[in-house]
Write a structure and sequence with these properties.
The complex is a heterodimer of chains A (299) and B (463). Chain A has 7 helices and 16 strands. In chain A, the strands form 4 sheets. In chain A, strands 5-6-4-2-8-1-9-15-16 form a 9-stranded mixed beta sheet, sandwiched between helices. Chain A is of the alpha/beta class and 299 residues long. In chain B, the strands form 2 sheets. Chain B has a 6-stranded mixed beta sheet with strand order 7-8-9-5-10-11, sandwiched between helices. In chain B, strands 2-6-3-4 form a 4-stranded mixed beta sheet, covered by helices on one side. In chain B, α4 crosses α11, α7 packs antiparallel against α8 and α9 runs antiparallel to α10. Chain B is 51% helix and 12% strand. Chain B is an alpha/beta fold and 463 residues long. Chain B is elongated, with a radius of gyration of 33 Å. The chains are: A alpha/beta (299), B alpha/beta (463). Chains A and B meet through β5 of A and α7, β1, α9 and α10 of B.
Chain lengths: 299, 463
């Protein structure tokens, strides 16, 4: 089985998203920084919302810090700049405003710990990604949203990695079920050409909306089309009902989900058996699953 | 000084015209917001302003386009310059100053314009870019401090060791050492930032003057572009006559264009004293008055005007009496509001040379007293050192020595001729109201009664 970094090598824009807080996004990011670094790939790092802080400001749990090598392009915000201990070269100051100041593009002259920032508006992120690709970096990694439900950032990037783990639930089977459904939704295929027989649902596709549709209309052989996976909020039960009635679900803007990364450690203190958990996940998922921490040492 | 209300500026199309302007930089935007009219004694400055617009309009269009694009690349560093006065700038702020200077260095600052001057800032750029690389990125390079160079070598050495080290205890020790170096680097960087701030501080007046002049240049270019786009003309600055040849109002013109109609351009000459305008309802008296006021207001703000030719004197103020609901909003009847406005204007006119435009004053009271009031008002204004234009439907307002314009009107036909014709003082206002009722399709039953009432058309009985 090829490594995570090998799988991601063909893509220039990579998005890391999490099922929940503390699902191990930062660990995966550090792993990618190190492995891409060993291959001499120049990186640009940005985040949707704040990331990289030692104590998670949302859940107050300690978490790994992001360490970048010299030469990395770091996207952060004005107010986070002083807590980045790299030697900095300011490359650009954007007009994108965040609660933590404007988004700035910095080149790391030395290695060091950084806190990433970035625009939280999808259109601004799209502009930034385009500029970064044109000017400053071979490969861009976006430290993405906490849950696929909050932002459509995956549609901006060529490849997406989903992080999941013990932070989601105490029971391995429950984690696997929830992750399986999330993966199914993230991997919804591209919608066929609308020939009038399909049902396009613009905006949020809620569970209630979908259930009503499944119960009231003859769904057999028809395709329900959503804008993208971030707009789909249906439960696995409802999705099963749709499939039972021979309906299908597709999206206009599909996401390229290439791998799942698991974290057997819960921020609440318990740890799943890493090898057993990984094996179960691998058996359940249609795409490769990695536990990058198993052979990881920090920085 | 008395000026048009914002409602009036909306109504006459002044805000519309200002909205058609595009400044490329925030400095030009500042100038536009601070726009102030030229008054008596400002003739030289206004001439210079018009001269500059003409020079810009005569320059190569591509050069101007490039200059406009360059202006668009300037970011507003006023806040940073203000901070420099009292404190130390951050690395990001120096980045912004450096980039302002880089764009500034690209600009040809020897423009043949009067009163718009720039000061070279190469020496300032050299402070922030001692190596002369002239690239956008900004770092506190080792050229700024020998200590920084040493600290960064140590930092790099530790990073290298950390990459090799697998023993957690050793790593913790290395990380502690690194934290000390990072703290020393921070302190030294702060010292460099302070030193750079001190070096730049004497240049604050140069920064401010250049930003002001960038704004002036941008604003002047925006006015010149507007004039070119609409074919507006440079007005002559006259002693005291206000005259327009074939003037028009771009706001009204645009509305008419959407209805596939064309605005009639009209000419008017107003001398010191009172000028009376009469004419049919729907004949465009109000539009003509608004157009004259709009162009007079634009001219005194240093804009070219929407006409084939214009003479504009340097008024101390412009004011209008028109139904704009301002007074009625304060609990006055429309007649009461007129009285308040007229009083205010008379008060200002004692010591100032004003353009006064009154659109059907006293229209909302009884015709007998209303006519007497307007007649008196016209006679009163005729004696004042002001240019006064009064629109009215009342009879026998015009006295010898006053100009009298009349809308050409229906002239017995059913098509409105919006042209203004200068007529004798004793020419009565036309009796077109009944015909307008017919053209506009008034209810037949009512119209029959009106026709009976008007037969014969009653002579004016109020006197």
């Amino acid at each position: 089985m090829s490594s995570l970094v090998d799988m991601l090598l063909p893509y220039n824009t990579i998005n890391i998203i999490g099922m929940t807080k503390n699902a191990g996004k930062t660990t995966v990011l550090n792993h990618l920084i190190r492995d891409f670094g060993r291959r001499g790939v120049g990186l640009a790092l940005t985040s949707i919302g704040r990331d990289g802080e030692e104590i998670d400001v949302v859940t107050q749990t300690s978490k790994p810090r992001i360490f970048v090598a010299a030469g990395t392009i770091v996207i952060t915000t004005e107010k986070l700049l002083p807590v980045c201990d790299i030697t900095k070269e300011i490359v650009a100051v954007t007009d994108f405003a965040t609660p933590l100041g404007r988004v700035v593009v910095v080149r790391a002259i030395s290695g060091g710990f950084v806190q990433l920032g970035g625009p939280s508006i999808t259109t601004q992120m799209a502009v930034l990604v385009a500029d970064l690709q044109g000017l400053w970096a071979e490969k861009i990694i976006i430290d993405g949203a906490i849950s696929r439900k909050s932002l459509a950032s995956p549609t901006l990037t060529q490849a997406t990695v989903l992080c999941t783990g013990a932070a989601l639930a105490a029971d391995a089977n429950s984690i696997i079920d929830q992750t399986c459904h999330a993966v199914n939704m993230l991997m919804l295929p591209k919608a066929p050409k609308d020939d009038g027989d399909h049902i396009y649902l613009p905006g949020a596709v809620s569970d209630a909306r979908m259930r009503e549709l499944v119960l009231s209309r003859d769904i057999k052989g028809r395709c329900v089309i959503a804008d993208d996976a971030s707009k789909v909020f249906i439960s696995s039960d409802t999705y099963s009902k749709l499939l039972t009635r021979k309906g299908t679900l597709a999206v206009r803007a599909p996401i390229n989900l290439v791998a799942v990364a698991v974290n057997p450690v819960s921020p609440r203190g318990f740890v799943l058996d890493a090898e057993e958990f990984l094996a179960k996940m691998r058996a359940a998922m249609p795409i490769p699953v990695y536990d990058v921490a198993q052979k990881e040492c920090l920085i | 000084m008395i000026d048009l209300t914002n409602t009036q500026k909306d109504a006459i199309g002044l805000n519309y015209v200002l909205g058609r302007m595009t400044c490329r930089s925030s400095y030009g935007g500042e100038k536009m917001r601070q726009i102030a009219p030229f008054g008596s004694g400002d003739e030289a400055r206004l001439t210079q302003c018009f001269d500059n617009m003409e020079k810009i309009m005569a320059m190569d269009a591509r050069d101007m386009e490039n200059l406009g694009n360059l202006l668009g690349r300037f970011k507003n560093i006023r806040g940073i310059v203000a901070k420099l006065e009292v404190g130390t700038l951050s690395q990001v702020e120096f980045f912004e100053i450096k980039n302002f200077l880089l764009v500034f260095a690209e600009m040809d600052i020897n423009l043949p314009l009067e009163g718009i001057f720039f000061t070279k800032m190469v020496d300032v750029l050299d402070i922030l870019d001692p190596a002369g690389q002239r690239i956008a990125p900004f770092s506190l390079g080792e050229g700024f401090s020998a200590d920084l160079a040493a600290l960064r070598r140590d930092k790099a050495r530790l990073e290298h060791l950390l990459q090799q080290e697998v023993d957690q205890g050793q790593r913790a020790e290395l990380l502690t050492q690194r934290a000390k170096i990072v703290a020393a680097e921070d302190a030294e960087e702060m010292r460099v930032l302070e030193a750079l701030s001190a070096k730049l501080r004497p240049y604050i007046p140069v920064f401010c003057a250049n930003m002001d002049n960038l704004g002036l240049l941008d604003f002047t270019m925006a006015k010149a572009n507007l004039a070119q786009e609409y074919g507006a003309v440079r007005p002559e600055i006259s002693e005291n006559r206000l005259a327009f040849k074939n003037m028009y109002n771009p706001m009204v013109a645009e509305v008419l264009t959407t209805k596939n109609r064309v605005m009639t351009k009209v000419s008017i000459t107003l001398e010191v004293g009172a000028t009376i305008m009469t004419g049919a309802n729907m004949g465009g008296k109000t539009v003509a008055m608004q157009t004259a006021v709009l162009n007079a207001a634009l001219g005194r703000m240093g804009f070219f005007v929407f006409a084939d030719g214009a003479e504009i004197p340097l008024f101390d103020g412009i004011c209008m009496v028109a139904e704009d609901m301002q007074g009625t909003g304060h609990g006055l009847s429309s007649f009461g509001a007129d009285v308040v406005q007229i009083n205010d204007i008379i008060c200002h006119s004692r010591n100032n040379f004003l353009l006064i435009a009154m659109d059907e004053p006293a229209r909302a009271t009884n015709p007998a007293e209303g006519a007497a009031i307007v007649r008196a008002l016209a006679a009163f204004m005729a004696q004042k050192n002001c240019v006064c234009l009064i629109n009215t439907h009342y009879d026998r307002i015009v006295r010898p020595g006053m100009r009298h314009y009349q809308v050409a009107g229906l002239r017995g036909g059913s098509t409105m001729d919006y042209n203004l014709v200068e007529v004798d003082a004793d020419t009565a206002p036309p009796r077109d109201a009944l015909e307008i009722c017919r053209i506009m399709g008034m209810d037949r039953e009512l119209l029959d009664i009106i026709e009976k009432e008007c037969d014969p058309i009653p002579e004016t009985t109020y006197y």
